[in-house]
Design a protein that fits this description.
Layout lengths: L12 H24 L3 H27 L5
Helix pairs in contact: 1-2
């Protein structure tokens, strides 16, 4: 799993994980707005990107939990 995580992200996994989760929330809200205005294609695209952001954020938070504590 460590090969998938970019080198600059390895030091701050929790921060990047929480930022990706926040981005997923923003993309979900945008998707709802697009659905309310009837633009279904963009809403589906935003939902797909939100799912990807949630997945990547959870992978990074899981990796941050599994690494040994700093000394």
């Amino acid at each position: 799993m460590w090969r998938w995580i970019m080198r600059r992200e390895r030091r701050h996994l929790r921060v990047f994980g929480y930022v990706r989760l926040a981005a997923g929330l923003v993309l979900t809200a945008l998707s709802v707005l697009f659905l309310l205005h009837g633009v279904i294609l963009f809403a589906a695209l935003m939902l797909l990107l939100a799912v990807l952001a949630f997945w990547l954020g959870s992978v990074e938070l899981d990796a941050a939990r599994s690494q040994p504590p700093r000394t």
